[in-house]
Amino acid sequence: MLPTRSAAWNGFQALKSRLIGRLAAFSGEQSHASGRPSQLENDADLLEFDLRDIFSASHIIADIPVVTYSNMEQTVQNFLHYLNTIVNRDFINSHSDSFRGRSSSLSERGSLPCDIKILSQQYRQLGALAELLDTRSSGYFNLVAGPGSKLLFELPEGYERGDILEATRKWRELIEELAVQSRHSLPDQPVGLLDHSIYYAEETGKNQPEPQGLQKRASVIVNSIFKEFKQQRCAEGHELKLRVSNEWYAGSNQKPLDILLSCCLDEEFWQDTQCTTTTTTTFHRNGISSRKRSEAVCSAIQQANARHEKLYFLVTENGLFDISSERPSTPAMLKNLTGPTLSDLLEQRAFRRITPRDYLNGTACDIVGSRDKAAIALCLARCLMDFFDEEVDLASYSWNSEKIWFLPDTQSRQKSGPFYVSLRPASGLTESNPDLLRLFGPGNPILLSFARLLLEIEGGEKLSMAIHPTNTANTQKWGQMCGFVDVAAEKAGDGNYLKAVEGCLYLHMSLPRVQDGMSTTEAKELVRQAIYEKIVHNLELLVHPPSSNSKRKWQETSTIHNHRAEKRPFVSPQRSRTLQRPRFVSPEIMIPDPHLPNGAELERPVVGQHTSDVPVRTTGRPASRDDFERAILCALPEEFDAMSLLIDEFWDEFGDTFNRADGDTNTYTTGRIGKLDAVLVLLPSMGTVSAASAAASLRSSYTQLKLVLVTGVCAGVPNPETGVEILLGDVIISKTVIQYDRGRQYADGFQIRDTVEDNLGRPAKNIRNLLAMFGTYHARERLEKRAAAFLGNLQSTAGLKKRGEKYRYPGTSHDNLFKPGYQHKHHSATTCECAHHHEASDRVCNESRRLSCDELGCGSEHLVSRERLKDRRKQEADGKIMEAQAPSIFLGRIGSGDKVLKSGVDRDRLASQHELFAFEMEATGVWDEVPCILVKAVCDYGDSHKNKLWQNFSAATAAATTKALLERYIQTDKPAKSYSVC
To answer: Which residues does the UniProt record annotate as the domain Nucleoside phosphorylase (predicted)?
Structure first.
């Protein structure tokens, strides 16, 4: 995984980039007064050396193994957390006048660098320090020890000092280890088959060009030209073909753009044009006739056509300023473009994978290689980053293989010339959308069409997928493409190219929620930053892989560490021992030994296997269905998928051997969860009837079941009668179930049936005892702790299976509780008539039921403030994501019925009437058939604003709680029996 997926990693890099080259010379002796240094001074010296190693070393970490990623993120979060607490505020305050004045003005304009914004959101003191260093371009500093007043950090005298030193040491050792691993795992650079100078920026002493920021280059010029056509009322008659080059972004800012302009009088002719940007207001070219600014662009094209001249456009920040021309040595007008399009090359199979037969037949040179594909994709991705917010028709026009042209280079006369992207104005030019972030949801046509284009380039064949101009119409196609990428990643590996495609599909998950007062400029910058990190950067790693010239052997690195430890002044023997590289010990797994009697176990270390943070015991495969005492029922495929990620071992990996009873139509999955065997069942559909049928069949096949867990998602009651606050992702465990939709409808209201015959029965005694234990604070806190650990394991396992994005914590910005009577509908009177209806009982249009809150403009002023949500926001701000995502667990009544609840008013009424914590749809069908407990995670609040954004994450928290609950389930002793060992 890329380290840039971690916000904490990006924050660390933001601080490091401001400190490189800014540290004063340091030796430990100069920081001490005369005499022997104190323990505080000794620790300050040690911390100074560690921090200098961290912030000065040139570590190249291109990729992080998924199994290490969680540890990396937690370690850097701890490091930044402690570093944030020791920022020298006196140093910041001493520069407060000039610094705060500039800072406030930058904040008002939204011009703060994006990386400092990210750092400040989670670590405010570090963000302020980075901002100060950004404003002061001169000066040298010491970090925590040394003479003078320019110390950036202050080491406290309290007990926290040891925690700070330990967190710093762990982070230093981890990044050194990751750097060594990354250097040893770098791939060899593939050999390209085309003229690389067309696609690759020059590499002078560096393997990858230094980024020049996320500047807009080509779009400024293109936008100015289209505005000129619009002013002349000729916009629809023109399009242009832009020569794509990485040199716009890696080279000089004055690099001209080559453009072919269509002629409105003759569509067969294309005018060769060169465009340059400048900040000056004068223009002069020796030997070239300069036209007056008032001359129309169309007229200039026609005259250049007649004279066979090349046009030169000069563009300033105010728009197109000057047009000039000269007679070129080669024809400046092209008629009937003869170069192939990308669509032609795909049909000619020029982008297919190379085979030995291609080499033997001599046709290998005609096939585009993998690196060349990545180079073309990188050029297009930078165009996406440049043009996504301009009034250019990208989705249905530019990101189409028929609109990308490979034209002959008339100057170099090379067969493999540059390629051009066709651009035209979007139909009905309008001002920039102020709610830009709301447009980038699942199915966004620009991102979806670009993902399709990337897949066509890599796969070598066209995809027949029509993309609609609106997000909601593309939701199904978006889901299909996500599924394909998951399968492709699982089969071929999660390379950077597929990560770029994944970045297109899941970009909306990297964007924050629209905030009041956010300017359009800020929104554009956030989207541009996300496009770079999720799409462009992954392709950059393919085209310009990090250099491996600085590889060093592990032994050499270890030697350097030892010498470094010896050079530190005044380090006590006890302290120096902590500097040694930690040993990595494989977890121990208990494996049965067939030669020992009665299935006794032999402890044996197994390398590379680890599913939880406790040793796991395997007692062998069950002999028959009678050995299964636990079952798990899931109503949705999403719930089943999440639960399956926490199965430690599948017994039916190579096919089912347990069969099922006659008449049973269920399909079962068997496996081991911890030390318990369990059978998983996916219901064919939601609802009580389907659940009752499946439960009856389950009982007929697995007759020894003592506990059935109904695991999945539910609608939560945000404020039950008990006074607690329930958030999305929290888990409700059932004490009892109420069938709230069964009863009698009278003229004055509905009355549920509550006679003894109608009520659902009590749970079995062993289940009541287990639930009583979970009612204690001690047991519930322990259950919550284990559930949080299993949730992290599930997310790591999903990452290994290329499904990590599905189970990522959505964040508090997406946990929105609206007032019960506030309807999910159109709120603009010009959009729909339902905007005039303000009562909770008023009808709304069908279209609004399909649109998101962002698309409808549901007002944030109608949100309900909650204290627990504020606490979680603070945890997020402090970088404690694992703590923020940890679910709280509640025991209470759950309402069950055959209808989906989408009314906040009815939710609160039913919850108050029956003291409910949640609503779901399967329990009444299972409750009296088998001994069961409901483990349901809240994925929505059962109101009209209900959506599926939290469904996968909540399914994961329910699965994690289910495994934690089974861990606390005490088995009953059985007579010894033999097991078949596989």
So the answer is: 630-746
